[in-house]
Amino acid sequence: MFTGLVEEIGVLEAITGNEQDSRLVIRAERVLKGVQIGDSIAVNGICLTVTSHTSRHFSVDVMPETMNRTSLRLARPGQRVNLERAMRLGDRFGGHIVSGHIDGTGTILAREPHANAVLFRIGATSDLLKYIIGQGSICIDGISLTVVAVDESSFSVSIIPHTLAETSLQDRRIGDRVNLEADVIGKYVERLLGYQRSPAPDQRDKTPRLSLAFLQENGFV
């Protein structure tokens, strides 16, 4: 599990293989302290497993599903990437619950100054937007952010100077693709509301139906 608080910006130094069998080599410093083979590191929000490392680099293997679902299929050597080590028990929880499992990608539609911040508007598909709410949490390229506004085809986030300076968002321009992970709570609620039990025939009338009203009455929402 991750928190969406980026620890450092690394550099993607090499990509070998193809979309079916890929390996990335990433230059880093901070996230390599105490690293071991098998550790999880989020790379632009994608949970990847360290397969080898030196004092300045680490390597990860990427399966086809990850390449197809994320912006890694567009990545090029020299690109800067956000890095975060998996959260340890007892660490401060400053962001929100981030699994490192990308739901899909979005496209930067606008980047505009907004007082001391920068407002990014990001286009996304309806299957992602249904999980995004105003003032809710969203993870963009591994960064925990708060949604400012959302409409039928896009949502906006406001980036403070510190976040812009400490993440790869400073490199992002209109038309770029970014990785998106929606808040896991919304996905669990959707699953619970859509779940249908199939009781034995003699129990059908006795089994409570799962509904929004039921969840509210029992303190789940």
What does this structure look like?
With 221 residues, the chain is mainly β. It is 15% helix and 38% strand. The protein is built from 5 helices and 12 strands. The strands form 2 sheets. Strands 1-2-5-4-3-6 form a 6-stranded antiparallel barrel. The longest helix is centred in the last third of the chain and has 11 residues, at 184-194. The relative contact order is 0.16. The model has no long low-confidence stretch (mean pLDDT 90).
Instruction: Categorize the overall geometry.
Output: globular
Strand line-up across the major sheet: 1-2-5-4-3-6
Rg over CA atoms, rounded to whole Å, is: 20 Å
Secondary-structure class: mainly beta
Poorly predicted runs are none
Keywords:
15% helix; 6-stranded antiparallel beta barrel; 6-stranded antiparallel barrel; mainly beta; single chain
Short synopsis of the structure:
With 221 residues, this protein is mainly beta.
